[in-house]
Design goal:
There is one protein chain. The protein is α+β, with helices and mostly antiparallel strands and about 80 residues long. The chain has a domain at about 45-75. The protein is about 35% helix and about 15% strand. The chain has two helices and four strands. The chain has helices at about 5-30, 75-80; strands spanning about 45, 55, 60-65, 70-75. The strands form two sheets. The chain has a two-stranded antiparallel ribbon. The longest helix has 26 residues, at about 5-30. The chain is rod-shaped and about 95 Å long. It starts with 5 loop residues before the first helix and ends with a helix. The relative contact order is 0.11.
Length: about 80
């Protein structure tokens, strides 16, 4: 049979506990990675009054130009080409 004294048992207990904590730490670090940045899809608008090109991500049919404050209506995709 094995003969182990108290100091060896305490050492094995502490080292096994630290090993479990380390493995759990590595596991949860990989699982809880930061989410990747996903850009919201936005619409590119061109003002019919001042010809200013701007981006509006509200996805409405009508948008207000940030330069001249006029309202612009969304045109179908085939008319822009």
């Amino acid at each position: 049979m094995f003969h182990l004294d108290v100091s060896t048992l305490v050492f094995l207990y502490v080292m096994s506990s630290l090993l479990v904590v380390f493995v759990l730490w590595i596991f949860f670090e990989r699982v809880a990675a930061l989410p990747k940045f996903v850009r919201e899809e936005a619409d590119v608008w061109e003002c019919s009054i001042c010809a200013y090109t701007y981006v509006d991500s509200t996805h409405h049919e009508i948008s207000q130009c940030p330069r001249c404050k006029s309202y612009n209506k969304k045109e179908p995709e085939d008319r822009l080409l």
